[in-house]
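Incident review: delayed structure delivery

Summary: a single-chain prediction request sat in the queue longer than the usual turnaround. Root cause was a stuck worker, restarted by the on-call engineer. No data loss occurred. The affected request and its eventual output are reproduced below so the record is complete for anyone auditing the incident later.

Affected input:
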Amino acid sequence: MTLELNEIQQQMEQGKLVFLDCSIDKVNKPLDKSLIELIPDSLFFPIEGVFSDASSNLPHTMVSAAVFTREVQKLGINSDTTIVLYDRWGLYSSPRAWWMFRYMGHKEVYVLNGGIIAWKEAGLPTVARHRQATRTGNFQAAVQSNWFESKSSLYQKLHNPNIRITDARGTGRFMGTTAEPRAGLRSGNIPGSTNLPFEEVLDGPYLKSKAALKEIFAAHIRAETHNIFTCGSGVTAAILALAAYHTGIRDLAVYDGSWAEWGKEY
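Output delivered after worker restart:
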């Protein structure tokens, strides 16, 4: 779920929050490394480092529960810690981290709507360096399998009328009229899926209103079905998952391998 800045400030005063910067480069659009602006006292959550399975040939494969537990403990996070995630784009990669924590059973995890952009627009101070954890937390992962979709499980569900598959890639990539940005991938889409480019649920760096999101999702998802989100590599699919959760949808999952796996040319 997302939190607005005023909601976060109320909890900050009680000293109950841990901020995690979850920023990653966009495809063909890297972050500006010469200008680093962070929320003070925040830690770095390296999605493309220790929180992606290095043994996989896919871009952002989810790590095991054991690895996730160990690395989150290194950040000093406990099982009762309230976590606020953000990224330097506004709202891009932080939803991926949100989904990872939810899949690993942590409920008190939120995304700052608007990320560092919202923080700066409020006139709040920034720093140029992350804080380093000084203690080990007691976090323990408890996998919630309903949040995760694999290639094999999705393949078995393709003709099930009780699922909905929504693809967050751009329309050109979904329709196969635009080449994939990663080499070795076919063009096209997963059979039975619909297309909802992730930008359509955003208003600049912010999620659109709940009312607007419900209208947007009306043609794609249902509360009574299992809603699966996919994209290029499992990152922007999580934006749709977060937006759907914001509207009240609870039966949802992200296809971790996404088109990077399904679209491989064998």
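Verification: The radius of gyration is 18 Å.
Action items: add queue-age alerting; document worker restart procedure.
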